[in-house]
């Protein structure tokens, strides 16, 4: 990836940051059937293999958010049937997001040792195992234990696996489809948003059909297992090469601009993952039935997809991004607060405002990676910093919502919290949106 010096070069594919960009020797494209010698490669066979690889990568993306939204869709049923204490509910909604930040820095290290494809395969295996484990009841083995130990262990495994996929998958999409970045970038980002929408929309109907929340959660292990089997032959064909990190690019940890962008990311993550974890329970507490609440969350996430598609191009057209960052931050915080204490007759309006704002806010935060850096190495380092710090601290949003609900017995205080978080996101979005580059001391005041 060459230098980024013009804002209008930034679009959705530009957000595909290669986590292996500093590797020496450079990571090679994924080996496809017909590339291992033994005669000329069939162009038709190569095209089929490339389509198969693309399908696998998109399907992996389609499994990266169901963990969050499926649990929230049946949270009241899980809490009641499993007898979960308040602290357990808070932990179960917070831990997976925290682990996204904890395990993100390990992904490039593991990829240098084992290869990105095999790490992705291992992550999908752990994700499948976690999805199978979390609804299990071990009361027969450990009397009195019930579901809580497996819920905790399975949820933690899923969070760790998703962290690895989050970091490595965009680089594979960019590396293996350099001439189809528009198509593959759009499919990849849409798949991740669709993953959250599917988890929110289909979990409660599965619960209604089976009468068991355990079946509703186990259901999501099926698509993960299918993708694991589909990707297995691709990963096993790879021959890992030991790589070393070159540590090129600017030291983003010493950059004031990088910290402003990262804090902006933290604040948007606080709201984003709180939507996955708490919006369905918020709606149900307000009297919305489970199926309708799931549909509302799904529609809100579909609107997130709309915002994420248009916001990067819109942000890149401006000389700086201060105005759009402020607007989408206030839309998100206001939409979330109104979903909690706004008039119930307009609840579809509030959740739609939240969805459109949240999708745009997330996209603008990610677009800052390209707009505030001059080269791919610095962009990759900023991306790593934003994921590690952003997700790690961003999980405090779900934590605070849970604690406020436990302490007050309602979500009203959480509505005030999101007004504050949205306002802070507007402040730091204004700071991060100024037209400056990381490492350019003459323009950034570093």
TrEMBL record:
Q: Does the keyword Membrane apply?
A: yes
Supply the InterPro entries for this chain.
Answer: MFS, MFS_Cyanate_Porter, MFS_trans_sf
Q: Say yes or no: keyword Membrane present.
A: yes
The UniProt entry, under Pfam families, shows: MFS_1
Gene3D superfamilies in the record: MFS general substrate transporter like domains
Q: Name one GO molecular function term.
A: transmembrane transporter activity
Annotated protein name in UniProt: MFS transporter
- Species of origin reads Pseudarthrobacter sulfonivorans
